[in-house]
Specification:
single chain, 169 residues, mainly alpha, 64% helix, globular
Length: 169
């Protein structure tokens, strides 16, 4: 469960295990992630169960959102060969998350979101994007791009007024 994963990673971070000097203390990170998606495989065959369509199931909404965003960003902006984490890269990613999020200790939702992004990125190797996901992501991108262009145009239109106000003031 995502709560188990976040709780353990927060505890390990508070103990200083992600400071780059305690690699031996991070042996359980694989176990934490395994507990998150341990029911993915059939005990009989060892293959992915046919009723499973995601790398993990989340109980916290920010972890679920992070998973979605991590998955989308990996498909939309990262070449497939760069979506594979080696152990050292996963630990480095977790170290960066720990450093970033520890600056905001009261922002528990940030932990869930950032940690959710990791299995989202990892999921692309196991669950290819469906045509529906790709269409949704492309539509979201178009909406974002339109909003960005509108905001940029507003900023350009407002610039001369701001300059004139400064010159008059």
């Amino acid at each position: 469960m995502d709560t188990h994963l976040v709780t353990n990673l927060k505890r390990d971070t508070a103990r200083g295990y992600f400071d780059g000097q305690h690699e031996d203390r991070l042996l359980y990170v694989g176990f934490y992630f395994g507990a998150l998606h341990g029911c993915l495989l059939s005990p009989e065959t060892g293959a992915i169960r046919s009723d499973v369509h995601a790398l993990a199931t989340f109980t916290h909404p920010d972890a679920a959102k992070g998973y979605y965003v991590g998955r989308r960003d990996c498909f939309m902006g990262t070449p497939p060969n760069e979506c594979i984490y080696r152990d050292s890269e996963l630990l480095e990613e977790l170290r960066q998350i720990a450093q970033d999020v520890m600056g905001y200790p009261d922002e528990e939702n940030s932990w869930y979101y950032r940690i959710g992004c990791v299995p989202g990125n990892l999921s692309v190797q196991v669950f290819p994007a469906s045509p529906e996901e790709c269409q949704r992501w492309e539509a979201e991108f178009r909406l974002w791009q339109e909003q960005y262009e509108q905001d940029l145009a507003k900023a350009r239109d407002a610039e001369p007024e701001a300059i004139m106000a400064l010159q008059e003031g």
